[in-house]
Amino acid sequence: MPEFNIRRRARTRRPMVKTTEADNLDLVDRYDVIKGFGSVEILWNRNTLENIYSVVEPKLDEYERKLINILPKEMEMVIPNLRNFSTEYVKLDVGKLLDIYCKNYEVNLGEESREKIKYYLNRDFSGLGAIEVIVRDPYVEDISCDGYNVPIFVYHRKYGSIKTNVSFKTKDQLNSYVIKLAQICGKEISVSEPILDGATPNGHRVQAIYGEEISTRGSTFTFRLFREKPFTPVELIKFGTASAEMVTYFWYMIEYYASALIAGVPAVGKTSTMNAILMLVPPNAKIFSIEETREINILHNNWVATSTREAEFESNKSENGGMRIDMFELVKMAMRQRPTYIVVGEVRGREASSLFQAMSTGHTTYSTIHADSMEATVNRLESAPLNIPRIMITYLNTVIFNKFVRTGDSVNRRITEVDEMSGYNTETNEVVYNKVFSYDSFRGKHSFMGYSNLYKKVQYIRGIGASQFKKEFDERRKLLEEMVKSDITNYADIHTIITTYYRDPEKALTAASGGTL
Length: 517
Prior knowledge:
Number of helices: 17
Helix content: 25-40%
Radius of gyration: 26 Å
Number of domains: 3
Oligomer: single chain
Largest sheet: 9 strands, mixed
Distance between the termini: 50 Å
């Protein structure tokens, strides 16, 4: 891993935390990921005018480095190179193995050296090797390796797409690593079957290509990191993705069974937004989620979480011998189980037809789609392979648009528009919709456009007037704003407060303001 020289120099364009001595790099930010062993430095390169994501791990002296090179071979004799080797390894005590080795071979190690070697052994065997710190960084969403002797890139929530100081130096080193990734995912990859699409035991989605026949720069891999602590509605407001008024709208949307699509380009935060919105689901309501790879993560007891089972390339059977089960089959299964909400990770094939059929029969559905405007969404839905008739699109109630918005030097995710379907014009063959919320990028502010079909629906169902509805709406908005002020970001605490609100609004408001339930 390359070492960087850093020198002190004051800069005005970027926030300076600290600057150390060097030629061309400034320290912009620094934080710990693995306490005592792994940290991250964000560096600004004045020559190339770019940020660098630098992984900092314990430095090894020459003697420690030799031991690190020898010990893995000893470990391989204990743990066979099988598909389940990583799960077998975690059952072992690395500290004891290291002590046994040192005793048998009369190796004297100080406590500091022992801890460093133990860290690297754990990192390389039960962990993910050179990218372990990156994978465990809560600010990183995606990791991309584009070939050997090429820097790994990450997508950082604060700094966007950024180059790292980590790379695989040789073709063999990268090939071996990709094989290990396949083993961790419980799959195989080889020259004859060079494509991997799997998930780690922690839920991280992994796609990889082995060798140079398909990828000319050598083996590649991409990690889509699964967030153990899901994105919450409070964080939507806290980070400026949505306003408190907008999240309150989503709350009513959920409660009064309005189906919605969340649209946007890749990596704009569609699934995170959906995950946050689903936290507003009333207690005891049944949710049936369908995904190819698990990304939805909600704290809801009455939740059936399903994923597809893909087939092998040359047959219609999955790897374990069973029949292929795709999203279309799971949507049909969901409709038979009478869930309150059907959630599909993304619509992009024939499952869209079943999803809209479910809407037409009164089911409430939520999903994501790749589109950046209402016109593009409608065109995508009615085009192959989705093939939804334009008149059926009006069964959808709401479309939420996530977009990247540039603010100065940073790129932020924002919900820029919320539209409601209002009907279908038979004369013009156009879908009629109403814009409820919009985002002004110049002022950095979300605005209500003055009218909502949903608000009228709630008033009609409840038999209340506009003033009474506004009073209740403001009460819910205040609850969300108080959680932001109190910095309540733990999803379990938010879920408890939201659940309490349905039984005792005053008690929930007290908890949101920092009190106890």
